[in-house]
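pinned: reference chain
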Amino acid sequence: MALELYPSRRSHDAASPAQITVKGRCRGYSKEQVAISATPAERSIRNLGSSASSSSGSLKDSVSGHDDPVSHPPCSPTEQPQYGVHYQRYALRKYLSLPLALRPFVLLPGLRDFLVIGRPTMDTSGGLASYRNAVPKAVRARQPFLVVVDKPGAPPLEDSKYCWVEFPLPDVFKLDVSGMVSFERDYVQKHLKARHRRAYRVRQQELVESPITIEYFPLKPGSTALVDEMWALYLKNGRRHGFHVLSKSDFYRIHLGGTPGLSVMLARDNDQRGRIVTFCTGVRTGDTLMSMWCGTDYDNPLSRSCSTYINCQYEFVRIAIQDQGIRWLDLGAQLRQMKTGVGAQAYPVSGYLRCKSRVMRALSQKMMKAYFQPAKLMTDA
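pinned: its structure tokens
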């Protein structure tokens, strides 16, 4: 059965609606919603109406499979700033291991938060060269602590009146799909390493033999009941790993506030009346699809036996390949082994703390060295 999520990279013709089978029922497919069957033949994506030209053209060199960080691709200067996509605020007390005597200071008004100019995945969003374009001036002016995410060793701004303190951040993991046309041929057969390809086959077979189905669709504003269920899983995920980034108000604002390009991937247990086992939030910005906030019901044994989170990431890869406007699938930081296992590559990033004087820079360097320990905050293994 042929299924196309988005127009083919090799054909700009409009794709006709496909038919997909979900547990024996056949229904029409529209671009607004995808329900992915767990049958191998049905899970294979082919180019509708363009198979005759599938042998034409040449593939670009795919990203190598090693795990070492490589240099960053350039960021698109045309991306429009959106809260939650290009900059975020975080509570200082969650990220600094301060002694008891200093902790009250990060609870004072004006000193509680710091502003990060970068994507929620901790990838760059313009970097030092164009951070002013990503954040309104009024927001930057009233923020005493401002951090810009950029590649390591980024050149300082020649016209900047500030000093900058660079500090390392965990690698982010991305997959370049610009040279891929076929999910099976270009991604599974050519891009994945042999051991990762075997793991993919096993996980897909486990999914076939389970009551799990995977859905992908844009999240419409007002989907409160669904977001309630997602928040419960996100909170459970954070408690399991000891940390979660978004507060409840931020989570609901992002998912119910009409964030542009936001969609959700849901793995449902049909034996439990469609109860969500795993969700992942996807956000499209520029030529990048980001797989970000997620949650899993670890009390459901199918979350482990069916590898629901990893199988959701495979589907993000599939969607990214089929959308001719997407070049990068951004999986964010942490969980190196899992993300390299789905073919993503590590890219190094640094944070640049803005300082308004040399005295502040010297003090910040000592404070960062003593109290900021990102390795304790993130699981990069």
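why pinned: Confidence is low (pLDDT under 50) at residues 1-68, 74-83. The longest helix spans residues 224-241.
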